[in-house]
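pls design
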């Protein structure tokens, strides 16, 4: 999923708190950029508004802080991922069960993949 610089800056402005520099959003890991791109694509597809996103993300962060998240920035995109999962399930795009099934399959595939190699899902990962 590619993201134009203009789209990235647009989303970074629309959603407060996105770590950014003068060129736009800043990511520590590739998966963070992918979560950002997925959120932007789902928003552009009309699945949720930025207001819904911000409210759901804010609730997710508050919940995590209440459970002991130190809110030092390292977990910011984990909150994005949880927010995506919440909204996708709430909007009927996918069920929570399906999301968990894919997360478990991904974990299984990652466990068998050598470090540095691309992770590929196989049918047996859904066992």
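designed seq:
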């Amino acid at each position: 999923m590619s993201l134009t610089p203009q789209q990235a800056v647009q989303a970074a402005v629309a959603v407060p708190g996105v770590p950014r520099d003068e060129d736009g959003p800043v990511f520590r890991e590739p998966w963070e950029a992918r979560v950002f791109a997925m959120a932007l694509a789902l928003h552009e597809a009309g699945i949720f508004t930025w207001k819904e996103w911000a409210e759901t993300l804010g609730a997710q962060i508050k919940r995590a802080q209440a459970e002991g998240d130190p809110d030092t920035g390292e977990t910011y995109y984990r909150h994005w991922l949880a927010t995506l999962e919440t909204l996708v399930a709430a909007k009927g795009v996918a069920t929570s069960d399906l999301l968990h099934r894919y997360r478990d399959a991904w974990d299984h595939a990652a466990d068998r993949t050598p470090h540095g190699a691309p992770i590929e899902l196989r049918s047996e990962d859904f066992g």
